[in-house]
TrEMBL record:
SUPFAM superfamilies: YceI-like (SSF101874). Signal peptide: none annotated. This is YceI family protein. It holds the Pfam family YceI. Transmembrane segments: none annotated. Residues 29-194 form the Lipid/polyisoprenoid-binding YceI-like domain.
Amino acid sequence: MTTTKSILKPLWSLFILLLLAIPQINAQTYNLDNGASKLTVSGTSSLHDWDLDAEQQKGQIILNSTDEMTIEKLTLQVTAESLTSGKGAMDKNTYKALDTKKHKSINFQLTEVKKMTASGSDNYKVDVVGNLTIAGVTKKQTISMDVQVAGNKVTLKGKKAFKMSDFGIDPPKALLGTITTGDEVTITFHSILNK
């Protein structure tokens, strides 16, 4: 009798440990592939439309597929001075407007998944809410995106428009104020994250 008890006790402990570990086994972490990902900030000015491409970004998504697919964590960080237009003067005006000496990065941190709907095999339409921090000012933003999960890769695609003035940013001006930038900008992203 005591030998049965002594055998059952470690087996029972192992069973409990396995049960506790199941949620962690199903939670998968993916990190942003900077070289394969693209993020562009687009806007208008009194002279012409413009684009800034992010050359340095990092991020992470944690997906859990215990019962159905859920997003546990989503972060994105863009190095502010890696936003480039290919025009030195415009880039300088952008960095000045973003106060990049004090605020080195633009950050997004997920706070809530509002809606996640399957739209075919391993594809989802997702609405998330998160804190977007630009030039040291944080605002809650809702972002709609397409999420594709394929093997060891997650792809996020979407766009978000907002006003610079909402973040306390004065739209940049050039040539003594003769060229003015529109207040609204759009961030378009195609992010690749790998296991």
